[in-house]
Amino acid sequence: MTTETQAGKHVQWGVLGAARILRRTLPGLKAAHNADLVAIASRDQAKGREAALQWGAKQSFASYEALLADPQIEAVYIPLPNALHIEWVIKAVEAGKHVLCEKPLALTVEDVRRVEEAARRNNRLVMEAFMYRFHPQQAQVREWLAAGQIGQARLLRGTYAFPLATNAFNIRLDKSLGGGATWDVGCYGVNVSRWMFGAEPLRVMATGTIDHGVDMDVVAVLDFTDGRRAVLDYGLTYGRRSFYEIIGQAGSLSVENMWQEPDIAASVYLRNDKGLTTTEIAPANHFQLEVEAFSQVILANQPSPYPLTDTAANVRVCQAILQALTSGQAVELTALS
């Protein structure tokens, strides 16, 4: 079911959970030109009702199952704790809903394959929500790369972090809930390096700090083919950063803030033999652009712009980083297939 407006068809959306992340993501969903927020579900009925009122959802549900049973809802956004993603993604597609699930969609490749099978069986789309991929600053970087502005890309350096208070309960410190720096912030660096190189790493090395039973900060080296490497540092123990730089044989490209706030302009920097070129990109809400892109493929009955095969590849590398971190040895990715 879709609703018709002057702007065209809208996908009817529901949200499973009333987590704090909604403050960052739901303004984008609300602003999307082809999406309507219909309902929010929370196991805490009062919290769900409050969230629905706050974000202008028409309805709140006291259980996730009740929202999935509503026939008017066509797609769901899942921002639940990492360890709950697979259960509710599969339940959602089996209920006939398309799914946009927060990263990491899964913690094992096997679970991604379970989702793939459920999505195929029910003819539904599932996409992992790496919102940064939809910001125009990444399009600018890829345009310059394709144009050969820095020659062949050889090295990607990325740092992703924010300080996490460790004196109170936080799901990021709970291993059973999929906590730790790799799944929370390191997966961004893995994703952007794979995306920009257009390849998969063959070897992974890592060192870092394990505390509270999870990885708190990590330095990882991803070894790609033809001498290309990504050096990623990330953690939950130092200041907020989401920076990456791609160094080529003839120059470099850099993005200072990959987690760009929607109301702030972004800058992309190109350094080569012509000097420094700074391109300012107008403010853009990557959450909004992500919802619009996913809603559009639903309406057009097209494949997801980022298939689950990409999700599985990203999970595979994150698993290898954690294996290298705990074993103290390099991990060959070919051995994990």
Describe the secondary-structure layout.
Elements lengths: L2 E3 L2 E9 L5 H10 L3 E7 L3 H11 L3 E3 L2 H5 L6 E4 L6 H10 L3 E5 L6 H14 L3 E4 L6 H11 L6 E9 L19 H17 L5 E9 L2 E10 L5 E7 L5 E8 L2 E5 L10 E7 L2 E7 L4 H15 L7 H20 L3 E2 L5
Parallel strand pairs: 2-3, 2-5, 3-4, 5-6, 6-7, 8-11
Antiparallel strand pairs: 1-2, 8-12, 9-10, 9-16, 10-11, 12-13, 13-14, 14-15
Helix pairs in contact: 1-8, 4-5, 5-9, 7-9
Explain the overall architecture.
The protein is of the alpha/beta class. The protein is built from nine helices and 16 strands. The strands form two sheets. The protein has a nine-stranded mixed β-sheet with strand order 15-14-13-12-8-11-10-9-16. Strands 1, 2, 3, 4, 5, 6 and 7 form a seven-stranded mixed β-sheet that branches. Helix 5 (109-122) runs antiparallel to helix 9 (308-327). The chain is globular and about 55 Å long. Residues 1-7 have low confidence and may be disordered.
